[in-house]
C-alpha cells in the first residue's frame, strides 16, 4: 500500500547511488508533497547554505526522487486520493470544515457541497464537519470555491500523513526490554503494534484498524525498551488506502488525551492542516506534550508537520556514530536529536530488526520526556541537562539542543 512501502523506483534509484551505504533507505516512507514544487524551490538555498556540495547534491536528488514518486503514487491511487489546492495529497472528494455558521453551511449545500457527517473530536472540545465536494469538481477547485462561499471558516482537505522510517537490516535475536520504570503514559499515533508489544489499549481510527504493522510495532516497542510502562496506541492506518488522514489524527489525539496520555509521540509527516493544528493546540492546552519526527525527505523538503506546529517537540535522527541522518527532514524549530539509525526494535511478527529513520528517534526522545514528568521534574530543563551537545556549540539547526538517549536501542 502506498503509505507503507517506498515504491521501487525510489528505492532502486537511491540504492544504485554512490551514497547508498550511507543512506541505507530501503522502504523509507515518504510524506505527501507539501507544496514541494511551489515552496521548496524558493527555500533550498536557505536550507542548504551551511552544508557541503556533496550533501547539497544528495538533498536535491532526494527531493527530485520524492517528487517523481509522489506523482506516481497519485496516478496509481486516483480512486482514493487527489491533490488539494496546494498540491498536497488528501482523501478524494472530501473537505473538512470548522467554524462555519449555519448560514454558510446552507450556502455550501446550495452550491452542491453535501454534509457527510459532523465529527465530535473526543476530549478536545470541537466539531469538524465533513463535506462531499460537488460531483466532477476537482478537490483543488472545490477547496477554493468553498473558501469563497464561507469566508472566515477553516476549510481544508483531509490531508494524508506518512510514516518516516522502515526496516534497514535483517532479523536478529529476541529483544530484551528494560524494567518498566517510567510511569507517565505515552500515547502513540501510528499503525497498530503486533501482539509482542504490550499496550494498555489500542484503538482504530481508520478502515480495518487496528491492524498490526511493522512501523507502529517498532515505535511502540522502542518506548517499551526505553522503560515506558504504559503505552497507548491509536492506529490511523488500518487497511485504508487514505489512512493517516487529518481527521483520523485529530480523533486519535483526542482519544489519547481523554484517556490519560500525558505525552504523545507522532512519527508521521504531512503538510500543514488546520484540523490537525487545532487538535494539537487543544491537546497542549490540556497539558499534553506532543513529540514528532521531522521526516526523511532531506533538508530541501518543506517543513514537516506536525513537527512544525507551535509547541510540538521536533526530533531529528542520528546514526551510530552520532552523525545527522543525511535524509533527515526539517522543522520550523528543531528541539532535539535521538538515535535514528543502527537501532533495534520489534516488527509486527515480534522479531527484533534493525531500523532507520527519524520515526524511531521520536519515541526515544518521548521516553526521556516522560521519564522527567514521572519524576515530577520540569521536562525542558531536565532534557536540556541530559542532552549531549553535538555540532556547533549550543542549539543549532542540525541537532537542536542536543542528543537524547544516545545509547538507547543500539545493543545487539
What can you tell me about this protein's structure?
It is a single chain. The chain is an alpha/beta fold. The chain has 2 domains: 1-76 and 160-412, Rossmann fold (3-Layer(aba) Sandwich), CATH 3.40.50; 82-159, Alpha-Beta Plaits, CATH 3.30.70. 30% of the residues lie in helices and 22% in strands. The protein is built from 12 helices and 17 strands. The chain has helices at 8-15, 20-23, 36-39, 44-48, 53-76, 102-110, 139-149, 214-225, 246-259, 274-285, 361-374, 379-386, and strands at residues 81-83, 89-98, 114-121, 126-132, 154-159, 162-163, 166-172, 186-190, 201-204, 231-235, 263-266, 268-269, 289-293, 313-318, 336-339, 341-346, 352-356. The strands form 4 sheets. A 7-stranded parallel sheet has the order 9-10-8-11-13-14-15, sandwiched between helices. Helix 8 (214-225) links the parallel strand 9 (201-204) and strand 10 (231-235). Helix 11 (361-374) packs across helix 12. The longest helix has 24 residues, at 53-76. The radius of gyration is 20 Å and the shape is globular. The two termini are 31 Å apart. The model is unreliable at 1-48 (pLDDT under 50).
